[in-house]
Design brief:
Number of helices: 7
Number of domains: 1
Largest sheet: 2 strands, parallel
CATH class: Alpha Beta
Order of helices and strands: HHEEEHHHHEH
CATH architecture: Alpha-Beta Barrel
CATH topology: TIM Barrel
Strand order of the largest sheet: 1-4
Distance between the termini: 32 Å
Length: 169
């Protein structure tokens, strides 16, 4: 049972985190979207916030949660981690992409995850919104390899908005 729920749990944490991450001081971004070179004073202030916060969550998540490190009934590389399944199992893109269509975190509950993090005393969350395999947790014009384009039904497409609204309360 836990194995089937794990991708949904990971998805819930990831998407909740995308909303919380926006409250953390970030490096300055220019109008064209390029990260500007920050001054020493800006970096010091940004890093001080992180040092003061002390306790937070880093979420590294992607569609590799669907196969959970198993390919053709075998664990691919228990030491390397399931997020490297595509590389370790030497999967071509056409073999790996179907996992995006299988991922559909319909049981996501932003309020539950926000309450969990708050009760644990977490002050920040850092999230992997685009993984090395190219899968995006946000809508993008670059390609269709994203949560919003993968065929998720209704609610999951609204997860980032649900997270933001929950975190703002």
């Amino acid at each position: 049972m836990l194995k089937k729920q794990t991708p949904s749990v990971i998805a819930a944490m990831l998407l909740w985190a995308s909303a919380v991450h926006s409250t953390v001081a970030a490096a300055p971004v220019a109008a064209n979207g390029v990260v500007a070179r920050e001054s020493d004073a800006q970096r010091t202030a940004r890093m001080q916030w992180w040092r003061d916060a002390r306790f937070g969550m880093f979420i590294h998540w992607g569609i590799y949660a669907v196969p959970a490190g198993v390919q053709d009934g075998k664990i691919v590389d228990a030491k390397h981690g399931s997020e490297w399944l595509q590389c370790d199992a030497l999967l071509r893109r056409d073999q790996y992409e179907p996992y995006a269509k299988q991922f559909n975190p319909v049981r996501f509950d932003a309020e539950q995850w926000v309450r969990f993090a708050h009760d644990a005393g977490m002050k920040y969350v850092v999230i992997t919104a685009k993984h090395h395999d190219g899968f995006s947790m946000y809508d993008t014009a670059v390609n269709n390899f994203s949560l919003t384009a993968s065929g998720c039904h209704g609610g999951p497409r609204k997860m980032p908005a649900n997270c933001s609204a929950t975190c703002a309360i």
